[in-house]
From TrEMBL, chain A:
GO biological processes: DNA replication initiation
GO molecular function (one): DNA replication origin binding
Record SMART domains: AAA (SM00382)
UniProt KW ATP-binding keyword: yes
Assembly behavior: Component of ORC, a complex composed of at least 6 subunits: ORC1, ORC2, ORC3, ORC4, ORC5 and ORC6. ORC is regulated in a cell-cycle dependent manner. It is sequentially assembled at the exit from anaphase of mitosis and disassembled as cells enter S phase. Interacts with DBF4. Interacts with POLQ.
UniProt biased composition (Low complexity): 1-16
Name of this chain's protein: Origin recognition complex subunit 4
Transmembrane segments: none
The keyword Amino-acid biosynthesis belongs to this UniProt entry's keyword annotation: no
Chain positions covered by the region annotation Disordered: 1-41
Family per record: Belongs to the ORC4 family.
The protein's role, per its UniProt record: Component of the origin recognition complex (ORC) that binds origins of replication.
Signal peptide stretch: none
Automatic annotation (TrEMBL), chain B:
Annotated source species: Taeniopygia guttata (Zebra finch)
Localization, UniProt: Nucleus
Annotated stretches, region: Disordered: 242-290, 433-514
Keywords per UniProt: ATP-binding, DNA replication, DNA-binding, Magnesium, Metal-binding, Nucleotide-binding, Nucleus, Phosphoprotein
Gene that this sequence comes from: ORC1
Name of the protein in its database record: Origin recognition complex subunit 1
Matches recorded under InterPro entries: AAA+_ATPase, AAA_lid_10, ATPase_AAA_core, BAH_dom, BAH_sf, Cdc6_C, ORC1/CDC6, P-loop_NTPase
Amino acid sequence: MRPTARPSSARAPASLREPRIQPMKPSAMNKRKLKESSAESAENISQVQKILRERFCHHCAAGKLFGMEQQYRHLLELLKRTTVHGESNSALIIGPRGSGKTALLNHVLKDLREMKQVRENLLEVHLNGLLQTNDKVALKEITRQLQLENVVGDKVFGSFAENLAFLLEALRKGDRTSSCPILFVLDEFDLFVHHKNQTLLYNLFDISQSAQTPVTVIGLTCRQDILELLEKRVKSRFSHRQIYLTNSFDFKQYIKIFKKQLSLPDEFPDESFAQKWNNNVQHLSEDKTVQAVLQNLFHHTKDLRSLHLLLMLAGSAVTVHHPLLTAADLQEASRHHSTDSKANIVHGLSVLEICLIIAMKHLNEVYDGEPFNFQMVYNEFQKFIQRKAHSMYNFEKPVVMKAFEHLLQLELVQPLERPSVRAQREYLLMKLLLDSSQIMEALQVYPNCPTDVKQWAASSLSWL
Amino acid sequence: MYAERIDKPFCVSSHLSFFFFCFVLNNNRKVFVCFSFSLGIMNTRQQSKLIYSWYGKPLNSDRKLRTSQYTGILITSESTKTEACIQLGDFILVEGVNADQPYVAQLMDLYEDGAQHKRAVVQWFCRLEEIPQNKRKLLKREISAQEVFFDQVLGYDTDIAAETIIKSIMVLPLHLGEELPIITLNREQTFYVRQSWDGKCFKVLSPDTFSKLKEANKKRGVITNSSKAFIPSDILTPVKRETGSVVRSATKSKNPDMEIESKHSTSKSSLAKERHSQRVANNDIKTPTARKKLELNSPTRSKSRLLGCEVLGLLDDDCDSIAPLEPSATKRKVKFPSEILGSPPKIPCSNDKSKSTIETAEERQRFSETMQFSPYTKVKDFSEKDKNLHEKDDILSLVGYQKPSSQIPVLTPRSRRTCAQKTSALIAEQISMLDQEDFQSGSDSSYSSNSEEEEDDDMPCTPEKKPKSSRIFSTPKSSRKSAVHTPAKTPKKTPLQGTPRTPRTPRTPRNATPEIPRRIQAAQEPASVLEEARLRLHVSAIPESLPCREEEFQDIYNFVESKLIDGTGGCMYISGVPGTGKTATVHEVIRCLQQAAENEELPPFQFVEINGMKLTDPHQAYVQILEFLTGQKVTATHAAVLLAKLFSTPGPKRKTTVLIVDELDLLWTRKQNVMYNLFDWPTQKHSKLIILAIANTMDLPERIMMNRVASRLGLTRMSFQPYTYKQLQQIVSSRLKGVKAFEEDAVQLVSRKVAALSGDARRCLDICRRATEICEFARQKRTPEIVRMAHVTEAIDEMFSSPYVNAIRNASLHEQIFLKAILAEFRRAGIEEATVQQIYHHYVALCRVEGLQSPTVSEIMAICSRLGACRLLLVEASNKYLHMRVRLNLSQDDVMYALREE
């Protein structure tokens, strides 16, 4: 472990950090003192950020599981029976995205590998529906992961049919007591369902239901209707063992999770800093504004991945001069987290483009959401220019067209059909992808918006 | 053996394929497949060119039956004008299922039936391969490949079509204790019989049959000597050759063939002799696969020879005739015996010195067996001894030869050869090239097959493997050493021999034995009652009997049994929803039938199973069936052709085939030709094919099959009803017999629940298994170890409860509000579909009511896609943003129910 106090001049990294620190606090008075302390805290800060980043980005098994003890035990027992007794099984782990399916499985596998009776006694095959897009690829991958390909020798891997027969033969030869059990993990299980005839699933489940090599098939999916997707024969062979993961915790537990996720571990080198940090986290969790922020997030989504995202954003605000998280950091992060992306784009538009959007909004109101074309928008804009506008310059039609096309590129406007060569651009039917409330909000914060435009936006009939 | 049937047009192709064979052989053994494939095609074509005609006048004819008997049959090859005459009492080869392994029989009668078909009545002999594996050990001795058994099995059809006769051979009766006589030549055509086989046990030949067989042999000898078609006339041939006449005769075409075969076999032996001798523990002379392949070589070779006009043969023979002088050129010396071969029917016994080396090798091997059991310790001196022996042999054989073939100037061979070389130096070179390749391929094939065998043999005793393989390396060297004596030819050969084949013993996937690694720690046996129960309740556990399917079992059993006894074919269609025991019952039937066949209550049959789900393509069904039946591996289209031939031609000794086609509906193709063929074969007269087709839907034939397919499937149908709760209960309790793990009521509850839902036995067993787990889980709280109602209920709930309600209840607040907004929009619009924009307005209103901060559109979209990913909602592609249409994936009532509970 590193000594806590060290002369900064002796260390190279400190000099690297200096330019980052200096512009922030250019006080010349106690420069040397500051340097020393800042170097020391810089070390700590980088440590903290490293720990937090690892925790939030890598969904490693090291992190603790929250609220799935029962599922954990079920899965662990299941896999243990496979390895120890050679019992074939199949199971599905179902839960919404970010509910910790993979984390649970990794956790179980890690604990399983550490068990004495299990060590070296389980072959694992990991497949992912996004990677193994058809059975042929999946079979190759299985053979590779089972290291059966060396048996095939120098021969180029045979046809799909040969391959399947080969693998089935291999699995058929085994029996419960003598063969090494195999664990098949099918991530994105729902995508395997779309393979032709569901051959792979049928065969895997069939093996798991017959006296062959012991296998356990674990599928991970977020689809609740997964069983309806299975073909009837495949479904019958599946053991119907479903492990549901739901984020069933309440807000109190959510706060606890928040604390756990932010706290520094005991092994942190600088104990005093760790304590200071942890106290601050404790303090934060009791803070009203922080609770409001968390409550808001909790109301939106319970999955821990978005909490991680929020904490990542907040955590990146931590610097040498701002060594501890504050409620404001979290608020800022929350604001970032929940901004409307489309409305953000509107902020950067020119006044002409804003005018066009307002024209489209009026058209939507008049025609009740019916699609429009450029000519209609242009006419609407012309009406506004002629009758009402004093501050607006009357742009040429091509210029307006250009602005309209820019909106098209920003996907604020979407054509109903693909633009063909024959159709004139002016008469292509379009739809606006913004809600009127979004437009109004964006106008509120739009800098230097002419008043007449604002008035026009508020009421379509004001020019009458 | 194919030489007689070779027609000129095909020579070219065979020639080509032969070359192809030679070249690729060095790299990969897999070529054998291709080769036999091409041969197979040729064979089928050649058959059409053979003309079968009666020999002589009808002996006596039956007016009523309109049959007339004959004494012999002439087999004429149209294009080459070769003739072979087969008489009553001759031993013959008959086409079998496997083209490489024709049946052996004795011709008893020949007649023409009313429909002008030529028929033959035969007495069968069976090869070792035809005897069931489990009966072979009754023999208690090693059987050489040339040994056959006098077949007394009833039930084989002895009346065959005369067109299936291939050619005549020799079968020599022997007493049980008698050593195998050393046959000189064409081993492929000489068989021995020592015992008879009646399907149950082996018996010594009765003196009666023995003498009959002996007589038949003698008679045959006389006949062949007198019949001009069969005179091999080795005395004539040299003369002819000297004059260089190009007269074609039956002998001409036959001679090269025989000579080649024998030469070939010797070439094998010369290379393989040491390997033979070193192969100790198992007296594995009989190497069926290798032999098969070697046999295959011969026709092409002879063809190429034929093609290359008479001069080539002449020259070649010239070269051969010199060989005996040179002691080590063992492969050449056999040429003499091959020429003499045709005439002397009584094969010289042990005192005859003109025996082929393969025999000596065999014999020697037998010696070596008795003498030493650790070959590779003494290999060196042994091989030397071997060589010495060889030399002696050669000299002796020379002496033996001089008498019969006095005309040949054996002692002045060199001049002859030089003369021959002078006359046609260019051609000679070509021949030698050809010859080398022959030799090369022959030896190569023998080599590789041998080495592979060896490897297989050695498998168990791994430590020995290394030294042995090093011995393999030495083999070509030794042949090279011996080759020094024949400077004229061998130098070219040796580099070829030495280089390519030694290092590799490639294993093709066909021979590869895929295996999952063994487990390191032993599997634990069940310790508690619950674990025992769980093991028994696993679907994979095979019960002793299948309860509740007795009727279906009996029906299927009766169907197959009757067809088996009749020796006819038929189809049966079995339907039923998944998990009703279709496949299990059929397997049980097959198991019982196999048992019965073993106990001789039923004729033996072959059992093939294919599963539509385990095929990547419907046409792969052909490949799998053919592989099961004959072990050949070919492409789908070719397999279809072969199977069609197999099932449409009368295979006299073919067993009935029982074919199970599981998941029949997946064999559907647009043209339905797979199904059509499958169901068409059993309707053919000679197919002896029984098909049990299994699928889920009862009306599959009517629904997806064309009329012609459905009509061939027939109306023998059976449907498996879903299990009733009583049956399910019985199934579970029969499995749990003797294990007190379940409350009676608990089992009943499971059965009733499953019977009400699907009647799927698998489900029932799974629930019970899960219940034991739950019970075990709860047991740690000191409750007695028996599965009660509560456990079962929990297991049922776990498996059958709808996940949606729970998912909605555990959703976040805003997700729930979104669902409410959807409901509100649906109610407003009256359509069960809405765009996000419409829902958004309701959503904002609801948030205001709840006093929540209304979220931004981005957040709404996130919620929507999250719910869409769980499939609580069905959503369109997200690029439509606000105009994306949304639908509920469950009923509105369910959503309301789930939301109200809060």
